[in-house]
């Protein structure tokens, strides 16, 4: 069966999200939000499935939250990319036919791109070694995919562990390395809208940008064209490595990347603490006029709130409108919301991505 959903309800669900955002931002006299819709189908570039066995035959399975014993068996997932849906059947058939691939396989993870690449991770409840590699390579050649094998404590990579995405932002194509297991925006079309909106709202500046939580450089690359220099910070090593690669692939040379948590950035910029990771970086050479934050669901901590308050402009991308509103309550004494937006990254769910631009009063 296919997992059910109703595209006919999309407009109504999006309108409800918009109204929820309007109500949350009403105390801050925010302008009307710009709304960026998602494709109704085939918008999700990542998907993972547990396998459920009946009479020894594997099926893709998903589960209702909190119930891991009653599977929903599926053969297609309309919200997933067309490439994922094209691969689901042939991949499972190949694993059924080849014991080296199918034995004790318990999970399949797909990572696809708008540019057409696909990486599939096969996860096992048994050790895998070089004898698995030959069968996996045949599968990769047959389906024109990248394949990774995972078992406890082991990861076998046949060629590479990443895909290369291409995103169109205001007429320019940016290339991104997206690593298996790393965070990437799941809805590529809406991500392009997010990046274009951020770049447009940033405009042209003769001062510098401070970016916290930069990840693999998703926003960093297009925003680098809007500022004299950028200092981007990220804590996760894998994301830092991808961000460096992405800057090199795109010829971006005005970004300084620093591996620090947001709390550490606050300590460094306020002179509370020195960091060995900042050796060779002249913080005094930066003239930050704008700060860009894309925090986790918990929002900004009190120290980071105080840090960002010191800048003329604050770009805030949020995956949790409730914590966004709570943070705006703190920031509204010094800044006002001049632009806001709703990015429908997650259709058919209550989740939404939103963005605001705050300017000092």
Any key phrases for this structure?
8-stranded mixed β-sheet, 7-stranded mixed β-sheet, single chain, globular, alpha/beta, MeTrfase_TrmA_AS, 10 helices, Rossmann fold, methyltransferase, 361 residues, OB fold (Dihydrolipoamide Acetyltransferase, E2P)
Average of per-residue pLDDT values = 94
Major beta sheet summary? 8 strands, mixed
- The share of residues in extended strands comes to 25-35%
**Low-confidence parts lasting 5 or more residues at pLDDT below 50?**
none
CATH topology of the largest domain: Rossmann fold
User: In whole angstroms, how far apart are the ends?
Assistant: 55 Å
Secondary structure layout:
Layout: H1 10-25, E1 34-36, E2 46-54, E3 57-63, E4 71-74, H2 82-97, H3 99-102, E5 105-112, E6 118-124, H4 130-143, E7 146-151, E8 154-157, E9 162-169, E10 172-179, H5 188-202, E11 208-212, H6 220-223, E12 230-233, H7 237-249, E13 255-258, H8 262-269, E14 288-293, H9 302-308, E15 313-318, H10 321-331, E16 335-343, E17 353-360
Parallel strand pairs: 1-16, 6-7, 11-12, 11-14, 12-13, 14-15
Antiparallel strand pairs: 2-3, 2-5, 3-4, 5-6, 7-8, 9-10, 15-17, 16-17
Written description of the protein model:
S-adenosyl-L-methionine binds at residues 185, 213, 218, 234, 294. This is tRNA/tmRNA (uracil-C(5))-methyltransferase. Its EC number is 2.1.1.35. Keywords: Methyltransferase, S-adenosyl-L-methionine, Transferase, tRNA processing. It catalyses: uridine(341) in tmRNA + S-adenosyl-L-methionine = 5-methyluridine(341) in tmRNA + S-adenosyl-L-homocysteine + H(+); uridine(54) in tRNA + S-adenosyl-L-methionine = 5-methyluridine(54) in tRNA + S-adenosyl-L-homocysteine + H(+). With 361 residues, this protein is an alpha/beta fold. The protein has two domains: 7-40 and 187-360, 3-Layer(aba) Sandwich (Rossmann fold); 46-163, Beta Barrel (OB fold (Dihydrolipoamide Acetyltransferase, E2P)), CATH 2.40.50. It has helices spanning 10-25, 82-97, 99-102, 130-143, 188-202, 220-223, 237-249, 262-269, 302-308, 321-331; strands at 34-36, 46-54, 57-63, 71-74, 105-112, 118-124, 146-151, 154-157, 162-169, 172-179, 208-212, 230-233, 255-258, 288-293, 313-318, 335-343, 353-360. The strands form three sheets. The chain has an eight-stranded mixed beta sheet, with helices on both faces. It has a seven-stranded mixed beta sheet with strand order 4-3-2-5-6-7-8, covered by helices on one side. A two-stranded antiparallel ribbon has the order 9-10. Strand 2 and strand 3 (57-63) form a beta hairpin. It starts with 9 loop residues before the first helix and ends with a strand.
């Amino acid at each position: 069966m296919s997992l059910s959903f109703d595209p006919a309800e999309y407009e109504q669900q999006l309108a409800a999200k918009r109204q929820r955002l309007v109500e949350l931002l009403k105390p801050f006299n925010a302008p009307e939000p710009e709304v960026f819709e998602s494709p109704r189908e085939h918008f999700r570039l990542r998907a993972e499935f547990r396998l459920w066995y009946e009479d020894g035959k594997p099926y893709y399975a998903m589960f209702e939250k909190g119930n891991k014993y009653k599977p929903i068996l599926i053969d297609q997932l309309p919200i997933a990319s067309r490439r994922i849906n094209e691969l689901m059947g042939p991949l499972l058939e190949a694993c059924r036919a080849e014991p080296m691939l199918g034995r004790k396989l318990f999970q399949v993870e797909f990572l696809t791109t708008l540019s057409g690449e696909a990486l599939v991770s096969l996860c096992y409840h048994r050790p895998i070694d070089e004898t698995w590699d030959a069968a996996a390579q045949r599968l990769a050649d047959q389906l024109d995919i990248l394949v990774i094998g995972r078992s406890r404590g082991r990861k076998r990579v046949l060629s590479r562990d990443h895909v290369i995405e291409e995103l169109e932002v205001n007429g320019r194509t940016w290339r991104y390395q997206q690593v298996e297991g790393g965070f990437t925006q799941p809805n590529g079309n809406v991500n392009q809208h997010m990046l274009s909106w951020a770049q447009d709202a940033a405009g042209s500046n003769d001062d510098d940008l401070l970016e916290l939580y930069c990840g693999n450089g998703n926003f960093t690359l297009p925003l680098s064209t809007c500022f004299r220099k950028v200092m981007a910070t990220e804590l996760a090593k894998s994301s830092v490595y991808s961000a460096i690669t992405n800057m090199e692939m795109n010829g971006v040379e005005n970004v300084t990347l620093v591996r620090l948590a947001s709390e550490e950035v606050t300590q460094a910029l306020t002179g509370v603490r020195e960091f060995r990771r900042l050796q060779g970086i002249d913080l005094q050479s930066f003239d930050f006029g704008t700060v860009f934050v894309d925090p986790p669901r918990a929002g900004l901590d009190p120290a980071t709130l105080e840090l960002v308050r010191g800048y003329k402009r604050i770009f805030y991308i949020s995956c949790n409108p409730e914590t966004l509103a709570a943070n705006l309550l703190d920031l509204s004494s010094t800044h006002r919301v001049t632009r806001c937006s709703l990015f429908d990254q997650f259709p058919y769910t209550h989740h939404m991505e939103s963005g605001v631009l705050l300017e000092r009063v």
